[in-house]
Automatic annotation (TrEMBL):
Known partners and oligomeric status: Associates with 90S and pre-40S pre-ribosomal particles.
Chief localization: nucleus
Protein task: Component of the 90S pre-ribosome involved in the maturation of rRNAs. Required for early cleavages of the pre-RNAs in the 40S ribosomal subunit maturation pathway.
Record lineage: Eukaryota, Metazoa, Ecdysozoa, Arthropoda, Hexapoda
GO biological process: maturation of SSU-rRNA from tricistronic rRNA transcript (SSU-rRNA, 5.8S rRNA, LSU-rRNA)
Name used for this protein in its record: rRNA biogenesis protein RRP36
Keywords for this protein: Nucleus, Ribonucleoprotein, Ribosome biogenesis, rRNA processing
Length: 230
């Protein structure tokens, strides 16, 4: 049987089915549709739809490719591949090695000298300045640099004490004596004594005591307010 004969027989079958269905009631048709399903019901009535797939081919390889309008284009399309830049933080990267505090201080020890030079230049600028805003800014910078230098000296002094303690312990071990380790409370008392002596030498002891008194008064007032509220 040829293709034309097949098509004719299929058309005849569809015509017969349509004639039979036309004699049925709407209720029976609905029951038949529910039983067969919408897809099969439509295929029996109208036949299968042939979907023609269009092939997008280029006549020449140098021509641009024709794309279907039904396929959505992605918003983030990578046209040109760009190498991803990976940022590294040397503080947390194992490839950069471990932090050596002694080596760091040895390499950047010149910063303290630069700060001292900055302090002297700022003091000169303060004597020459006339604008109150500029004077205020210079005073703030002087205070900041002085605090940084003071903190550096304090840390150096602390490190010197620690090294001295280690040296004394090593000497006592060499002599065959039992090493005596200081408690935190003892260290705290010694630090307070050294701080007291330093303030006394610089003449800032009275000022320091006044500041501590004010701090304690504020604390007491805050406690009283909380107790009154309760």
């Amino acid at each position: 049987m040829s293709d034309e004969e097949k098509l004719l027989t299929e058309d005849k079958d569809h015509v017969q089915i349509r004639e039979e269905l036309s004699q049925m009631s709407f209720e029976d048709l609905q029951k038949l549709k529910d039983k067969l399903g919408t897809k099969i019901y439509k295929e029996t009535l109208f036949g299968k739809k042939e979907v023609i797939k269009r092939q997008f081919k280029r006549e020449n390889k140098n021509r641009p490719r024709e794309m279907s309008a039904k396929i959505p284009v992605s918003g983030l399309r990578e046209v040109v591949k760009v190498k991803k830049v990976v940022t590294r933080d040397p503080r947390f990267d194992s490839m950069c090695g471990t932090f050596n505090e002694k080596a760091f201080k040895r390499s950047y020890g010149f910063i303290s000298k630069l700060r001292e030079n900055d302090l002297s230049t700022l003091k000169k600028e303060l004597t020459q300045a006339t604008d109150p805003r500029v004077i205020k800014k210079i005073k703030y910078l002087i205070q900041r640099v002085e605090n940084q230098l003071r903190e550096e000296k304090r840390l150096k002094k602390k490190e010197g004490k620690q090294q001295q303690e280690k040296k004394e312990l090593m000497e006592s071990i060499k002599r065959g004596e039992k090493p005596v380790f200081k408690k935190k409370s003892e260290k705290k008392v010694l630090d307070l004594i050294s701080q007291y002596e330093e303030l006394k030498e610089t003449g800032k002891l009275k000022k320091h005591i006044k500041r501590l008194r004010k701090k304690n008064i504020h604390k007491d007032r805050a406690k009283l307010k909380i107790s009154e509220m309760e």
